[in-house]
Structures are given as structure tokens and as C-alpha cells.
Amino acid sequence: MKAFSTLNDFFKEHKLNYIIGIIWLILIDGVQIVVPQILRKVTNLLQYGQLTSQELIKYIILILLTGLAIAIGRYFWRVYIFGTSRKLEYHLRDMLFNHLLTLSTNYFNIHTTGDLMAHATNDINAVRASLGQGIVMLVDAIFLTIMSIIMMAKTTNIKLTTITLLTLPFITIIVGKFGKIIHKRFRLVQEAFSNLTDITRENFSGIRVIKSFVQEESAFKKFTQANEYNLNKNMELVKVSGIFHPLVQFISSLSFLVVIVYGSKLVMLDTISLGDFIAFNNYLGLLIWPMMAVGFVINIIQRGIASMERINNILNEKPEIVDFPNAIPLAKVKGKIEYKNVYFKYPNSQSYALKNINFTVKEGNTLAIVGRTGSGKTTIVNLLLRLYDIDKGSILLDNIDIRNIQIKSLRENISYVPQDNFLFSSTIRDNIGFAFDKEISEEQIIYASKIAEVYDDIMELPDGFDTVLGERGVTLSGGQKQRVAIARAIVKDAPILILDDSLSSVDTQTEERILNNLKNVMSKKTTIIISHRISTVKNADQIIVLDEGEIIERGNHESLLEIDGLYKYLHEKQLLEEKVYGNAKEGQYE
Ligand SMILES: Nc1ncnc2c1ncn2[C@@H]1O[C@H](COP(=O)(O)OP(=O)(O)OP(=O)(O)O)[C@@H](O)[C@H]1O
């Protein structure tokens, strides 16, 4: 139960709703207890021929009123208890999502999206069930049981009550045992179905690859396997729940059998009246549900606690990258960047991704980073953004160690075009204006998309800037995505601009046009350009060449060509490739 203390604030705010809901529930339990009493009266009057039409009307009205009261009461306890548990689900999901947003990049390297989705759905549902259905079952189990048993013993016969009650705990035991098995199998069904969904989604996302490799048959085989697994898991669930319900019914009917055999004997001996007998049967009917509820409630609450503990583990997870106590906010930086003896190892890695990195980029200058794949280029900018913290050395921005700058203001000062050009499934307008909470002006969007050379492409789309991207929208080409991502960074207009391999999917002519357009933008900013292509970086003020995490060459285009090193080799290789293959990138085939 301690696990739920995370929700104390919620309980404080909503306790009145729970209290009102529970009061309604107890009131309805009370009204339900009255119904057998009415039946007892009517039967007794009938048995002794004393039921006048006036009396009959009175009891009919009474039964109607109790039915109405039960219906109204059910509505209210449902709204108050289930409604509050839905609010709790909303609150918890918000809390979890908000907390996940604060966690550092590394957390998402370790935990898969599937895992996080399972916490956000299955675990939260289990917590909601325990604090919704769980509460209802607990209240019913306590009140309906106590009230029914008291009424049975007090108004009918203690001996009959005792004998009948001996069979009822079996229902609780069976529900408890089967509940566990059913839940286990239900989880397997959920897993099998989510696996089937994943396979289906992946097959349709990769339909072009499947078709071009003529792998339809093997894709179908894999799908059928997963589909069959899903069917088997469902069959296992059906079998166990198929036994469960009849078994509970069977035991309940055994209880009724006891009542019929022993109860009718008592009626014949005149120890109890026929009305008592009818009322007793009704109380027994009322008792079946709370007996089942006792079995369910233990499982539901146990599951809720286990899920809450899993959620608490995430909520207790501290972000690795946080503001240092004396970190200061920066308004607008000038843009001088300095790396001093920087060493860095990724959290799960044994070897250094960067070793002894030293460079200075003056305010308004451009630094280019080139190097083979995996040499550490992206890692350099990851560190400037403080997506990871360095192990040794220091990184300074305007002569201040970035660990002494508040992360929010550090990142606000950087316009970043990441390598994967991720775009959200919303409109192009929303994607370009992503850095701002409010909508940006049409002029700003047009200006940025023109600089990024994507304006004409967007205008050809059916809804222009309002074209929706993503699964339910338009799919942009790799080069178009890159250019929308560049426009997004231009609109942000931060003093530092980082382009991480952001022109790799555009042809060299478009690249040249973009770089030309960017000249004006870049003249007022400090820029870091990462690229495999020498054509992208040749105009930079300073170029560093990385190899296996170390700077092996530095200078400008001309001075680097004088050294017989990696830069010159890459340059010559690319010139040769261009001559041989021509310019076979996006643009020519679009
Ligand atoms: N999250 C991570 N955890 C562990 N190792 C990583 C992680 N990200 C990158 N690396 C490793 O760090 C090294 C440098 O990677 P980085 O992405 O900086 O290279 P890069 O020069 O930008 O490569 P590319 O040109 O292919 O983008 C590589 O060996 C890579 O495998």
C-alpha cells in the first residue's frame, strides 16, 4: 500500500469524491438488503391468504422504488468512484510522461519504446483498476457480506445460515486461484497481440523493402507464426476462463442446494416460514458477488501495487544531466565555443568516444568537423548540448563552463539540425515553428523555407505549409526532410547553429545554394557543420578532422590540402566519385 503514497496529492484533492462514491455504494448495498425483506412479507401474506390488492399495490410501489433507488445509486457511485479512477489514470499518465521528458538521453538508450509504452498502458490500467474496481469490490465484500449474513441469521435461522455459509468460501478460493492464472494468461495474450501489432506495423512500414526483395512469402510466414501464437495464447485463456465461470456457478448452486434441502425441511417443520425461505434464497444470491469480489480484490490490489511500484521506479529515476546548483541563466550568448582537453566515454561503453579534444571557435565563425563514420563528430555536438556530460576537461561557452549554465538557456541558444531529421506527424508549419509555443508569422516560415531551399517543394504539396506529415499524411523524401529540419533551426534563430550531416541527402547544386543562402544567416552566428562531404565544409573558417575520437588534422581547406592526410584523401576520393558517378543525389531524380 505504501506504493500508492506517490498519489497522496491526488487522494487529498479527490478524497471527497471517493467518500461520496463509497457512501452511495453502501447506501445501495443497504437498499439491496431490503428487497428480500419485501419478498418475505409478500410471500408470507400470500401463504396465509392475507394479501389484499391494496397491500399488493403498496409492495409493487416499494419494489419499484427500491429498483429506482438502486439504479440511481449505481449511477452515482459509478460516476464518483470510476470517474475518479479515470481522473487518477489521467493524472498518473501526465505525471509519467512529464517525468520521462526530464530524463536524460541515455535513459532512452537503455529503455525501449515498447517497455515505456507498456508502463504507460498496462501498468497505469492496473493501478486504475485497483483504485476503481478494487475499491468497489472491497466495499461490497465487506458491507454486503456482513449485512447479508446478519440479515440471514437474524431474520431466518442461525443453523441454516451456518450450514449454507460453509460452501461460500470455496467461491472466494476458486476466484483467487483462477484469478491469478487468468491474469497470467491474459498478460501473455496482451504480449502476443502487441507482438502481432508490431509485426504488422513493421511489415507495412517496410512494404517497399519487402516487395523489392520479393519477400512477401516469408513476411506472410512470419506473420502467420505470430498470428498462430496469438491464437494459441487466446485459446489457453478461453480454456481457463471456460472452466472458471461454470465452476463458480456450480459451487453457488451447491449452496442453493443446501438451502433447498435443509431450508425446505425447516419450512415443513414450521421452524421458518415460506417467506423466510424465499428471503434467505435472495440473500444467498446477494452473497455470491461479494464472495467473488473477495477473491478478485486481493488479485486486483496486488497487481495494482506491483504496477505502481514499477511506475514509482521510473518516477524515482533521476535525470543524469541536471542543472548544477550554481548554474546561471544566460540571455543571448555571443557564441564563443571552447573545448579544452575534453575526454568522453558513453555511459555503457568501455572506450573513449572522444580523446583530448581541443579547439576554439570564435564568435560568428564557422567550425567544420569531418571524419569517417563513427569517428566522434556527432558526439562533439552532443556534449555541447549537454545531452551527455564529459568525463574530463571542460567545454566553455562565452568563457563560462557549460556545466555552470542552466541547461534550458544553454539549449535555447543553440539551433540544432540533428542527423536523423526527425519530424513530427503534424503540419509542416508546426514542424518549422517547433521551437515556439505560439504560431510563427507567415513571413518567418517563408523566409526560413526559402533559405533551406524547400519552399518550392512545399508549395507543390496539396496544402502547402498546412500539409500533414507522417503516417496519415504526406511522406517527404530524405532530402526534403533534411531541408524542413534546416528551416526549423533557422526559424529558431539562436546565436549558435549546428548542422549535423544535414546536407547529405541533397545534391551538390542544392547544397551549394543552401550554403549560399545560409551565408547571411551564418555571418551573425557561430556555426558548427558536420559533414562527410568536403564540398560542404570547404568554406569554413576552421576545419578539424576526427579519427577514432581524436583530432588528427586541423586548419582551413587550403592548408589541409597541403598536408598529405585524411582530409586530402577524402577530398580526392570525392572529386573522383563525382567525376565517375556524376551527381546522383536527390534533385536530379526528384
Ligand atoms: N549512445 C551511445 N552509446 C554508446 N556508444 C555510442 C553511442 N552513440 C555513439 N556511440 C559510439 O561513439 C562513437 C562515435 O559516434 P558518433 O555518432 O559521434 O560518430 P560520427 O562521427 O558522428 O558518425 P557518423 O558520421 O556515422 O554519424 C561510435 O563508435 C559510436 O558507436
Automatic annotation (TrEMBL):
Claim: Transmembrane helix is one of the keywords in the record: yes
Main location: membrane
Domain ABC transporter positions: 337-573
Gene Ontology terms: cellular component: plasma membrane
InterPro entries in alphabetical order: AAA+_ATPase, ABC1_TM_dom, ABC1_TM_sf, ABC_transporter-like_ATP-bd, ABC_transporter-like_CS, P-loop_NTPase, Type_1_exporter
Record SMART domains: AAA (SM00382)
The keyword Membrane appears for this protein: yes
Start and end residues of each ABC transmembrane type-1 domain: 19-303
Signal peptide: none
Cell compartments where the protein resides: Cell membrane
Keywords of the record: ATP-binding, Cell membrane, Membrane, Nucleotide-binding, Transmembrane, Transmembrane helix, Transport
Transmembrane segments: 16-39, 59-77, 134-152, 158-178, 243-263, 283-301
Topology within the bilayer: Multi-pass membrane protein
GO terms for MF: ABC-type oligopeptide transporter activity; ATP binding; ATP hydrolysis activity
Name of this chain's protein: ATP-binding cassette subfamily B protein
Organism (species): Keratinibaculum paraultunense
